[in-house]
Amino acid sequence: MSQCRKRCKRQLTKVARYFYRFLMGTLTQDSVEDDFELSTVCHRPESMDKLQEQTKFTKKELQVLYRGFKNECPSGVVNEENFKNIYSQFFPQGDSSMYAHFLFEAFDTNKNGSVSFEDFVFGLSIILRGTINDRLNWAFNLYDLNKDGCITKEEMLDIMKSIYDMMGKYTYPTMQDDAPREHVESFFQKMDRNKDGVVTIDEFIESCKKDENIMQSMQLFDNVI
């Protein structure tokens, strides 16, 4: 069981690192200029000054992010299919479609089926520049699939299976099929303090803050850009 947990922790760390590559690896290739080039963009983002006020990025950082975003999404928005296609480039040996679906849902805060540049930078600002509580709240929202304010074992299992599909069984071919469920059971033993079968936001944050490995993984978000 301890070996399973160690493998899972290594996998989650790899997921985080690949996620940063997805966010930043293809989004910092173009040179930075002073103004947006909006002539061919269907969706026009908020002004730089307004976005700077609403996020924790500088104007120069926003310009870099926008140029990369526009390079990947010329229309100014990305739908779920395109999001999955971009994300799958980093996991050619696995099936990242379900995890990308969950991630897209987390960024699509307006639930309109698309992620705009504003959606992107608001989420990115929390992930990369937010406080520990900000980041843990964002992570909780990712796991809370039906957005009812608590995480069930089924929801966490869906996320864990998507991570294993994306990279687990290819990275560790000998890993047992029940490893995702064992991982979920281990998490719930730590997090579900009142044993009511669900994890609330308070339980989630308190448990994560007490877990040294989770706190170390949070530091991966620091100084990405």
From TrEMBL:
Family matches, as PANTHER family: CALCIUM BINDING PROTEINS, KV CHANNEL-INTERACTING PROTEIN 2
Protein name: EF-hand domain-containing protein
Gene3D superfamilies: EF-hand
Organismal lineage: Eukaryota, Metazoa, Chordata, Craniata, Vertebrata
GO terms assigned for molecular function: calcium ion binding; potassium channel activity; potassium channel regulator activity
InterPro entries assigned: EF-hand-dom_pair, EF_Hand_1_Ca_BS, EF_hand_dom, Recoverin
Residues annotated as domain EF-hand: 95-130, 131-166, 179-214
Gene name, Swiss-Prot/TrEMBL: KCNIP2
Keywords attached to this entry: Calcium, Cell membrane, Ion channel, Ion transport, Membrane, Metal-binding, Potassium, Potassium channel, Potassium transport, Repeat, Transport, Voltage-gated channel
UniProt cross-references to CDD domains, sorted A to Z: EFh (cd00051)
